[in-house]
Design goal:
Protein name: Heme-binding protein
Largest sheet: 5 strands, antiparallel
Number of helices: 13
Shape: globular
Strand order of the largest sheet: 6-7-2-3-12
Pfam family, one: HbpS-like
CATH superfamily of the largest domain: Haem-degrading domain
Structural class: alpha+beta
Keywords: Signal
Organism: Novosphingobium subterraneum
Length: 662
């Protein structure tokens, strides 16, 4: 039986959106150049400082839970509280007496109405613990030592207009539109909970999130000594939703509970989202304020087995004890500094298996049967290293202090979606690991000669319809057969509920839901491809005796000749990837995520260009087949986009238009 949606306590207080100009700078597209890095690393051979290896202790996790429970008791609003470490290990799930055990994934549409239809993920009833964990993971994964983001921040950057408000129709969609459906429970990248939480591989990350990333306020990051060490997520009202209006202040009980929980573990004020402007609008961190909190309760023993109890969550946490977090950057965390044999780049970080082995060592492509000459290991290394070099020179979009360098995750795949190498900056946000892989695979998939064939053969009867909609929309009945190179910016254009992006009254893109059905929880093809995976996982988490967890292969597209899925962690629909070509033939793709969508585009595009120039055999797609050659006949004849690079992005030169002519 469905639970009624709880009413949110909302105070209509008008907020002025801060207009702040982003810093400008310059740069060329070549490797090299020197500049003073920020913050200063410990070695002259380094561009970045390694984050201190901080972690939450058992006593600290207990204190965080006690503080959140104390606020919930004061508000007379029982809740479920989840705490995770930086790489997503669940350290505790505490259910208060009387807390709702179920929740509804909000059925509200973009029009603000209650939809009677269960479109995509809207309207699903699932375990409330899934929401609490997803919120905690979101806050931890979106944050770093240079930026502290919350689930309210996530809400602001994933909606159909940015910033989301009744008076902003006509503005483009949020910069991370679609990121909420990353870190999926079916992802082949995400590590999984090890029963008993024992053994050397038990705590390796990054871990999955039960529902992907959350946009429902009530998830905040946790810090120690300026270093992000995890996140807290609260689920109390039974409504897993998002905030459609940033012009008012919500008196959200869940956010007050989370705010109480992070006292003593709050991020530095100068790196909070509400100190970071994007496209002239300052982001949101929390509507709850410290002065609105009740006196803190810090004793876990005073609430454990009285106000509530620890509970197990199938696939995430065994419920027997509060756990300590694992320090990010250690072998046990699953993310560590690369050895010289793995990368010559002194700042490179890689994913590890917890026992010393790189999970994604550089290798050649597996698809020679399809492409003839597959990417070689030397070519993959050249692209990864050149992209990493561009990252070290680029001015960050979201990091503080100003003029910090960008930090991102970088993935390269072949046309089968096989991971050929993955590298990242030391303090890049964790969410970008899975997202960079999604982006690379999405670019490789939609640029592939078999894209339409794969979608038409999907076992979900709804998926094939997206192919015909795309062909009709583009006026090309042979679309998605490899004639055109699609970057994620291009596919994202086709995935918006208005085309052109944000222009109210225009038709929806062929890969999107119409605006009457659209919400951040109902985006179209992106979710349709994985809805069955989400449903199966939800049944598993509920604990049904015969339910099996979803396999680590998202989507029901046909297998590759090597027995895998080309989009095995889902697709992504915001910018930051390009396909890679050899003599006009698709051979793979690169995906970037972590520090601004234009920066992501630039690092992908220039990394491919410079890497290709270095080895002399591969490069970006020929200009004549890039998606920006397509003029969509719908409406006024709008041209698709391919990449959008910042005009003056670098810290070491003053060059502009760095992607022009490449």
């Amino acid at each position: 039986m469905r639970m009624p949606l709880a009413l949110r306590q909302t105070t209509a207080v008008a907020l002025a959106l801060s207009l702040t100009l982003s810093g400008c700078g310059g740069g060329d597209s070549g490797s090299g150049g020197t500049f003073t890095p920020t913050p200063t690393p410990t070695s002259s051979s380094r561009f970045f400082a390694d984050p201190a290896q901080e972690a939450l202790t058992v006593a600290e996790v207990q204190q965080i839970i006690a503080q959140a429970v104390g606020e919930a008791k004061a508000l007379n609003y029982p809740a479920i509280i989840a705490v995770v470490d930086r790489v997503g290990n669940v350290l505790a799930v505490f259910r208060m007496n009387g807390a709702a055990t179920r929740m509804i994934i909000s059925p509200r549409t973009a029009t603000g109405e209650i939809s009677p239809r269960e479109v995509d993920a809207q309207g699903l009833e699932v375990e409330a613990t899934m929401g609490a964990i997803s919120k905690a993971v979101t806050a931890a994964y979106l944050s770093s030592s240079g930026n502290a983001f919350s689930t309210r921040t996530a809400s602001m950057i994933v909606q159909e207009h940015f910033p989301p408000a009744p008076n902003t129709p006509g503005l483009e969609s949020g910069p991370l539109f679609g990121v909420q459906f990353s870190q999926l429970p079916c992802s082949d990248l995400s590590a999984r909970f090890a029963a008993g939480n024992a053994g050397s591989a038990a705590f390796i990350g990054p871990k999955r999130a039960p529902l992907g990333l959350a946009a429902d306020p009530g998830g905040l990051p946790l810090y120690k000594n300026g270093v992000v060490v995890g996140g807290i997520g609260i689920m109390a009202d039974g409504d897993y939703a998002y905030d459609p209006d940033v012009t008012d202040v919500d008196g959200d009980p869940e956010e007050f509970m989370a705010l109480a929980g992070i006292q003593g573990f709050a991020p530095p004020a100068e790196i909070r989202a509400d100190r970071i402007p994007v496209d002239g609008s300052t982001l949101r961190f929390a509507d709850a304020r410290v002065e609105g909190l009740h006196p803190l309760q810090t004793s876990f023993s005073a609430i454990n087995n009285t106000a509530g109890t620890l509970i197990p969550v199938r696939g995430y946490y065994d419920g027997t004890a509060v756990l300590a977090g694992t320090p990010y950057g250690t072998e046990a965390s699953g993310i560590r500094r690369a050895t010289p044999s793995e990368f010559s780049l002194a700042d490179a970080y890689v994913l590890s298996n917890g026992s010393g082995a790189n999970r994604y060592p550089i290798k050649g492509g597996t698809d020679s049967a399809a492409v003839g000459t597959a990417l070689t290991a030397a070519e993959v290394r050249a692209v990864l290293e050149e992209a990493f070099t561009i990252m070290t020179r680029a001015r960050a979009q979201i990091r503080r202090p100003l003029d910090s360098r960008a930090q991102v995750s970088i993935s390269v795949v072949d046309t089968y979606g096989e991971v050929l190498g993955l590298v990242r900056g030391p303090d890049a946000p964790i969410f970008g690991i899975d997202v960079s892989l999604q982006k690379a695979r999405t670019a490789a998939f939609f640029s592939n000669p078999v894209a339409a064939e794969q979608l038409l053969a999907n076992t979900d009867a709804e998926i094939p319809a997206f192919v015909q909609r795309t062909r009709d929309f583009l006026g090309d009945q042979t679309a998605l057969t490899g004639k055109i190179a699609f970057a994620d910016r291009s596919g994202g254009n086709l995935s918006r509920p208005f085309f052109p992006d944000g222009e109210v009254g225009r038709p929806h893109g062929p890969l999107s839901r119409p605006i009457t059905d659209f919400s951040p929880l109902a985006t179209g093809l992106q979710i349709a491809l994985v809805k069955a995976n989400l449903l199966q996982h939800a049944v598993f988490v509920e604990g049904s005796l015969n339910a099996r967890d979803v396999v680590q292969r998202c989507t029901a597209v046909p297998d590759t000749p090597t027995g895998k899925k080309r989009i095995a962690n889902g697709i992504q629909i915001f910018p930051g990837s390009v396909p890679i070509y050899r003599n006009g033939k698709l051979v793979g793709a690169i995906g970037i995520s972590g520090d601004g969508i234009d920066q992501d585009d630039m690092i992908a595009f220039l990394g491919t260009h410079n890497g290709g120039a270095k080895v002399g055999t591969i490069g970006n797609a020929p200009k004549e087949i890039r998606a920006d050659t397509i003029v969509v006949p719908v409406g006024q004849g709008v041209r698709l986009r391919y990449v959008n690079c910042p005009f003056a992005p670098f810290l070491d030169t003053t060059d502009q238009n760095v992607c022009e002519g490449k």
